[in-house]
Amino acid sequence: MADELRRRLGAGWYEPGERFLGTVDIAAEFQVSQSTAQKVVVALREEGRLYTVLGQGSFVVGE
């Protein structure tokens, strides 16, 4: 799941500054729990691929 989302980010599926999938959407698409989806979002944020705005969601980091 994390590798697929990394691939999508690298392939330009999302524009810089665009809102990224929410944990509910990730959990539904990959059929995992929301807590697992949250761990993936945290990992992508720690890698510098996403940033989070409290109360608004996660967004794609520009180059």
TrEMBL record:
Domain HTH gntR-type: 1-63
Name the UniProt record assigns to this protein: HTH gntR-type domain-containing protein
Example of a GO MF term: DNA binding
Highest taxon listed in the record's lineage: Bacteria
Organism from which the protein derives: Streptomyces poonensis
Keywords: DNA-binding, Transcription, Transcription regulation
Ubl conjugation in keyword set: no
PROSITE patterns, alphabetized: HTH_GNTR
